[in-house]
Amino acid sequence: MELKAFKWNQDGEGIVTLTWDDPDRTMNVLSNTAMTDIAAAIVKIAGDAAIKGVIITSGKANGFCAGAALDEMEGSASGAGAPKSEEERVRERYNGVLQFNLLLRKLETCGKPVVAAINGLALGGGLEVTLACHYRVVADNPKIQLGLPESKVGLLPGGGGTQRLPRLMGAQAAISLIMQGTSLDPKTAAAQKMVHKVVPADQLIAEAKRWIKETPDAVQPWDKKGFEVPGGLPNEKGSSTVFTMGNALYRKTSFNNYPAQRYILSCVYEGLAVPIDAGLRIEARYFTKLLMDPASRNMIRSLFLSMQDLGKGARRPANVAPTTVKKLGILGAGMMGAGVAYVSAQAGIEVVLLDTTLEAAEKGKAYSTKLLDGQISKGRSTEEKKQKLLGLIKPTTDYADLKGCDLIIEAVFETREIKAGVTKQAEAQLSDKSVFGSNTSTLPITGLAEASVRPENFIGIHFFSPVDKMQLVEIIMGKKTGDYALAMAVDYVKQIKKTPIVVNDSRGFYTSRCFGTYVGEGQEMLAEGIAPALVDNVGRMTGMPRGPLELADDVALDLAYKVREQTKKDLGDKYEAGPADTLIETMVAKLGRFGRKNGKGFYDYPADKGGKKRLWPGLKDIVKFKITSSTPELVDELKKRFLYRQAIEAARCFEENVVTDPREADVGAILGWGFAPYTGGPLSLIDTVGTKKFVEECDVLAQKYGKRFMPGKLLRDMAEKGDTFYGRFKPATKKAA
Fold first, then answer.
1. Range of the domain at 332
2. Are both 500 and 550 inside the same structural domain?
3. For 542-602, what is the HEC assignment?
4. Residues contacting residue 735 through CB under 8 Å, at least 6 positions apart
5. Is 532 in the same domain as 678?
């Protein structure tokens, strides 16, 4: 027997240790190779009387198994090389899913006791392999994660997870974990009966062998006579409320946008009512339905494959040697600068935090203190780690402290004159190899670089608020930005463990332009007389994290007003005003309603942080509400306006060469401003609708609501040729276009 992803070791007592250590991958995954090995091993184990028990563990220091090989799964789901008949395609996928389920079923019924010795993270299919083992022992390491996160990428567990986990811990606990994709640390997993025992890492194999020798049991609980599901069956009194409440919660939180969560509920409900073999077939059917769903394919591509590629630096210039930021200068210690200081110090980077007064700079450092104190209170950090991190941040007002900085990030007020002033003062202290990055969210980098003596080393590095939580960083190439600056920016973003996208220069770049259309469309709707509660509720129903009016308040209405005034000044006669312009001018310039920052915007915010915000009653005096109730047809129309408006702008950015890679357009949209994740991103949305149909529907919207919905030349050309973004535009090379 030849194994490729596993190593076989059989001791003198007949105990086999199968060590999972795929030489072709840095992390073990359930690849076709791994499953072939498991199948061969099961035959050997079941047929050899000399084998008394089996231990499955990992040879990788970073984990047991990270789950399915989604790169292989995505290729299969796309239909490449599949039979043309839809019926044949469905049958092929169902048989493929069922094959894995049956493989694990053979493992747990092989007649020999099988132990999972879990020495690192076990997620998705990796955890499902352990659930098919008779005994699960985990190393005592709080960093180990155990869970079924498939729902986060539009899938459900396809290796029996929806059947075995509820039979171990009960439907209520299992549904919560599976639907949310929650991971548990070893001790919590043991308390919830996901695993049997937690031991020190160096005792893992010894404990596995002890169990096989002393208390072996080669039959799973659900295969024993008289087995009862913890908490009862779905149709029993008391148990049925779990599913009633679960369904209500799903619809409240997801607005029925995510089929995976809906199918998970169905898998558990239907599967617990039948023997496990039938339950596994039920799970395979629902998994197949998801594989055939474009939303799942889009989510796998954007939220896993594309994010993984970009996170590894897919857009980094290959001709530049790796760089490391050892000393970072931050200009401006406000909320954004303070956040950048925290995540940078967290990565072990020395930080100089500069502001106009030492009090302001110290206040910026205090933001890190606040975050760290919160972590300590939750047991996630220690006082020692806190002091070490804070020791890396130096508040100052002296530009001379910037000497030796590899990278500068400017995060001062959004005005060209102020940014130009700090650029000149900072660059006077820097070496020729230092890179200057501006955190501007709207002002063109090429224009800001005019204040620099080294425009080839001037680049945009746009963070999102709050910096410690937001995963995306938008890197903007000015006309003169060179490869070295781009390489350092990408390397720095990787250093702080965030995901970079690279875009070319324009007003608002990519994310701010597209995000602005969502907020702007909500304001247009309000200006048309649609009640604000309806506007925000429908915004959330599209899958956006918050309503457009809420978001406008969060970002700050006065900032939007200032940006708009600067844009008017820059564009002159070319600027085209919309109905929302008057609305914002009234709110800011006349009424002093700046948003959440001063407690009054479209909403009123209580001084007591524990209080709830409420829509400002005075809106009815500014706008005459013409539509105050909804119908299904109206909701569908408003949802389409929100999603299509953003998608059109994303397509325009592509046409104007602002964004050049479909992966960055989609990942940037989801991570940057929360574009409906179930769509896979705005360009995936267009591809799924079909370019021809999308253009036709946009033309209808343009006739009703204005030319902002008018598709551009690129979309019309693609519609005529039947092109898709992912078909026509291959992933970009490691250099911005």
1. 327-504
2. no
3. CCCCCCHHHHHHHHCHHHHHHHHHHHHHHHHHHCCCCHHHHHHHHHHHHCCCCEHHHCECC
4. 315, 317, 318, 483, 486
5. yes
Is residue 302 in a domain?
A: no
Instruction: Confirm whether 240 is domain-assigned.
Output: yes
- For 356-389, what is each residue's pLDDT tens digit? 999 999 999 999 999 999 999 988 889 999 999 9
Exposure of 692 by Cβ count < 10 A (0-12 exposed, 13-18 middle, 19+ buried)? Answer: middle
Could you report the per-residue pLDDT of 191-233, keeping only the tens digit for each? 999 999 999 999 999 999 999 999 999 999 999 999 999 998 8
Name the least confident of 79-83, 478-482, 650-654: 79-83
pLDDT at 264 over 60: yes
Apex 404 CA angle, 353 and 457, nearest 5:
90
284 and 193 within one domain? yes
- Residue 460, classed as helix, strand or coil, is strand
Choosing from 482, 504, 526, the residue where a domain stops is: 504
pLDDT average, residue stretch 35-51? 96
Instruction: Mark whether 462 is an active-site residue.
Output: yes
Q: Find where tokens 């747990």 sit.
A: 108
DSSP alpha helix (H) spans, 292-395: 294-300, 307-311, 335-346, 358-377, 383-390
* CA distance linking residue 8 with residue 6, whole number of Å: 7
Nearest to 120 by CA among 104, 143, 102: 143
Q: Are residues 391 and 495 in the same domain?
A: yes
The CATH number linked to 172 is 3.90.226.10
Let me know if residue 230 belongs to a domain. Answer: yes
Beta-sheet strand order (sheet of 183-184) = 122-123, 146-147, 183-184
- Overall pTM > 0.85: yes
Kindly list the strands in the beta sheet with 435-438, ordered across the sheet, starting from the edge strand earlier in the chain: 393-396, 350-354, 327-331, 407-410, 435-438, 458-462, 472-477, 499-504
Q: How many domains does the chain have?
A: 3
Q: Give the mean pLDDT of the chain.
A: 93
- C-alpha of 346 from chain center: 20
Work out the pLDDT band at 84, boundaries 50, 70, 90: low
Environment class of residue 215 by beta-carbon count within 10 Å: exposed (0-12), middle (13-18) or buried (19+)?
A: exposed
Residues 6+ apart with CB under 8 A from 135: 113, 114, 115, 116, 196, 208, 211, 217
Rounded Cα–Cα distance for residues 448 and 422 (Å)? 11
My answer on whether 634 and 538 are in the same domain is yes
- Whether 163 and 20 map to the same domain: the answer is yes
SS3 content of the chain, % helix, strand, coil (to 5): 55, 10, 35
Residue reference for tokens 């092109």 = 723
Mean pLDDT lowest among 248-257, 270-279, 446-455: 248-257
In a domain, 309, yes or no: no
The CATH number for 414's domain is 3.40.50.720
Contact residues for 542 (Cβ-Cβ < 8 A; gap 6+): 639, 642, 643, 676
Provide the token pair at 631: 């119908």
Both tokens assigned to 702:
């343009």
Catalytic residue among 112, 164, 209, 462: 462
DSSP state for residue 347 in the 8-state scheme = T
Q: What is the dihedral of CA 396, 399, 403, 405, to 10 degrees?
A: 70
Q: Judge contact between 60 and 122, C-beta under 8 A.
A: no
Q: Does residue 96 surpass a pLDDT of 70?
A: yes
Show the beta-strand stretches assigned E in 231-339: 327-331
Residues 484 and 562 in one domain: no
195 and 336 share one domain: no
